[in-house]
Amino acid sequence: MTNNQKDSGVSDTMNVTGIIAEYNPFHNGHAFHIEETRKNTDADYCIAVISGSFVQRGAPALVNKYDRTKMALEHGIDLVIELPVIAATSSAETFAQGGVCLLDSLGVVSHISFGAEANTTSDIDMLDKLADFFAFEPPAFQKYLDLELKSGCSFPAARAKAAVLCLQQMAFDSMNTDTVAQLERLLASPNNILAIEYMKAIRRQNLKLTPSVVTRNGAGYHDTDTDTELASASALRKFIFQDNSCQKADSKVLNQMLTRTVPDSVRELLLNAYKTHAFLQEDDFSDLLYYELRRNFLRSASSDPDTECSDLEKRIANNLETFTCWSDFVSDLKTKNQTYTAISRHLLHAFLGIDAELLAAAKNCHYAPYARILGFRKDASPLLKELQEHSQIPLLRKIAKERQSLTPEQQNLLDLDVYATDLYNRILFSKTGIQRKNEYRQPLIIL
After folding, report:
1. Contact of 277 with 242, CB cutoff 8 Å
2. pLDDT tens for residues 92-147?
3. DSSP annotation of 230
4. Is the pLDDT reported for residue 84 higher than 60?
5. Integer Cα distance of 422 and 140 in angstroms
6. Where are the domains of the chain?
7. Dihedral of alpha carbons 355, 356, 361, 366, sign
8. Is 190 annotated as a binding residue?
9. Any known ligand binding at 131?
10. What angle do CA 237, 82, 275 make, to 5 degrees?
């Protein structure tokens, strides 16, 4: 997708800002980000592109995508669109590309807002320079990256070290220690890495989106502290799943923690999910994962014995006999070079049946084949009208009716999104007895 493919461009009748998020779950930090976004971009409307039933760390969402849509619409978002599952469960690069290209394809979005651990103008300028660097990597970068990987670093750590070394070389080793420390600090934050990927995707795809950075306050991405108003989503999940059981968290203590960290309406929804055992995590899907991996192993064993297998695939086959649960299996497969989340994403793709054909179809449309609307606010009807006029990809509101108008490739990707949610809903039913409507009968969330 390039600017040449655009029509007259972003609508000049309204100011629309896009946000890419998971809201897993929605918390005070997200509310702060939306509020700051509206101030910084003078937005008439905010569109959120969110992950669906599964999220980027290779796990199911804590609660279903329609509840998370409601959370967003109640706290400053005007329209919620689902990020297709292939992009939502891929690396930071693909996750960012899918979200950015989807927002750009709507034809009405002028800005994209995201959080970053960038406390100064210098930090934000450096993130911009790093986005340029990664968008157009010099040949020396790959050499440094290979060396760091061979030394035993994980990919994220190796990438950061290789970037610093390469930038030092490009500066003829004149880079001062403060700048090196700044680079290392910025590249150590998952939120900054995503921020860089958003800006990189905009450059590579030559998109007309203006980045707007909101400095994150409170806990960092991996911070587990919940004794703060601005706790991270991972801290909330860790608290809920203490000792790998959502029932280990006392309801009174959970209520106190949520009162401190999330808006009131979100607290009520999460407490209800707690009472009905409706929180999902990867280990709830362990049996289905085992059956799928076992089926894949039998299928590959009966095919060409000379077929090359990756090192990870060999480790999966060798460890399958001792499989106990999803999380333990990932831990058993983990190496210095491969992170827990990267392995969990690989298993999730196998679990969902994401093959080379589906990956190619998603890549061909920049991971943005359509815009599937999950919900909107009634007072956002002018925005919907603008979308219908300017969007360069199909807008989906009633997929039972609209699926037939899609190309075969788009239909296959939509079917994958539907299948992912069907599996999620089935496990939810097995665990709780809660039966949700299937994707063809599920109404939009309208507030």
Report:
1. no
2. 999 999 999 999 999 999 999 999 999 899 999 999 999 999 999 999 999 999 99
3. T
4. yes
5. 46
6. 3-117+214-281+363-446, 134-188
7. positive
8. no
9. no
10. 35
Look up residue 296 and give its two tokens. 């894949």
Q: Please name the residue that has the structure tokens 């999966």.
A: 316
> In this structure, are residues 226 and 260 in contact, taking their beta carbons and an 8 Å threshold?
yes
Q: Is 26 annotated as a binding residue?
A: yes
- Is 27 labelled a binding residue? yes
Beta-bridged to residue 213, according to DSSP, are 114
Mean pLDDT of 207-230: 80
Residues 6 or more apart whose Cβ sits within 8 Å of residue 426? none
The tokens describing 294, both together, are 């076992």
For residue 376, what are the contacts with CB-CB under 8 A and spacing of at least 6? 73, 78, 79, 80, 383, 384, 444, 445, 446, 447
What span, in angstroms and rounded, lies between the C-alpha atoms of 284 and 54?
Answer: 13
Termini Cα distance of the chain = 33
24 is annotated as contributing to ligand binding:
yes
Task: State the pLDDT at residue 216.
Answer: 83
The residue behind tokens 């969110």 is: 50
To the question of whether residue 22 is assigned a binding role by annotation, the answer is yes
Q: What pLDDT is stored for residue 234 in this prediction?
A: 93
Taking the CA atoms of residue 230, residue 233, residue 239 and residue 242 in that order, the dihedral angle to the nearest 10 degrees is -160
For the question of whether the overall pTM of this predicted structure is more than 0.85, the answer is: yes
Residue 279 annotated as binding site: no
Q: How far is Cα of residue 244 from the mean position of the Cα atoms in its chain? A: 23
**Exposed/middle/buried for 340, CB within 10 Å: 0-12, 13-18, 19+?**
middle
Beta bridge partners of 45: 16
Element housing 252 (H / E): helix 251-261
366 is in an annotated binding site: no
